[in-house]
Design a protein that fits this description.
Largest sheet of chain B: 6 strands, mixed
Radius of gyration of chain B: 13 Å
Low-confidence stretches of chain A: none
Number of helices of chain B: 0
Structural class of chain A: mainly beta
Mean pLDDT of chain B: 93
Structural class of chain B: mainly beta
Shape of chain A: globular
Strand content of chain B: over 45%
Distance between the termini of chain A: 37 Å
Oligomer: heterodimer
Number of helices of chain A: 0
Order of helices and strands of chain B: EEEEEEEEEEE
Chain lengths: 115, 112
């Protein structure tokens, strides 16, 4: 069964350092999402791509976060510089079509700890 | 702005009980509502998706209902098992694309 791949699974960094997360969606899925989940809370959308274009990045802290999906397939989320409050699980999801019918499939996530 | 709330935040039941998890949302103009399961430290697994035109969806021992007018959805789990222990999240798809707004989740513990 096809799955969303993410790496690394765990990342520990010191504040002010740069970190990057990678996501490979299910083959053929045009829509890709990055969510951030703080421990004990539900995920919150950071950015949504349709192919290589950003659909929604209104919740992305653009002073330190950036996301790209250059060829419309895999995607990278970067944080520079990392802050203590960035410690969270970063989840990537993909779906086949835009609304209203499609299910989002989530990857295993990258757990970030900022010291 | 859509807000999604789940009550209770945590629930502990003995094995075999039937249980109901609640989800409420503030904006009834949703496209669909989804229920997910999340095991500790893991990603989310989709359980059920209810389109805005539907009232309920069933999968095995799970049944999810949707009442848009009252802004509520429930997830019914029949004959609970220890393997059902996990966090259950509901999420509403908004007007603007398929962006999901999540509730905070209900952490379920089923005791043998």
């Amino acid at each position: 069964e096809a799955e969303v791949a993410q790496s690394p699974r765990y990342k520990i960094t010191e504040k002010s350092q740069a970190v990057a997360f990678w996501c490979d969606p299910i083959s053929g899925h045009a829509t890709l999402y990055w969510y951030r989940q703080i421990l004990g809370q539900g995920p919150e959308l950071l950015v949504q791509f349709q192919d290589e274009s950003v659909v929604d990045d209104s919740q992305l802290p653009k002073d330190r976060f950036s996301a790209e999906r250059l060829k419309g397939v895999d995607s990278t989320l970067k944080i520079q510089p990392a802050e203590l409050g960035d410690s969270a699980m970063y989840l990537c999801a993909s779906s086949l079509e835009t609304p209203p019918t499609d299910t989002q499939y989530f990857g295993p996530g990258t757990r970030l700890t900022v010291l | 702005k859509q807000e999604v709330t789940q009550i209770p935040a945590a629930l502990s039941v003995p094995e075999g009980e039937n249980l109901v998890l609640n989800c409420s949302f503030t904006d009834s103009a949703i496209y669909n509502l989804q229920w997910f399961r999340q095991d500790p430290g893991k990603g989310l697994t989709s359980l059920l998706l209810i389109q805005s035109s539907q009232r309920e969806q069933t999968s095995g021992r799970l049944n999810a209902s949707l009442d848009k007018s009252s802004g509520r959805s429930t997830l019914y789990i029949a004959a609970s098992q220890p393997g059902d222990s996990a966090t259950y999240l509901c999420a509403a798809a908004t007007r603007a694309g398929n962006m999901l707004t999540f509730g905070g989740g209900t952490r379920l513990m089923v005791k043998p």
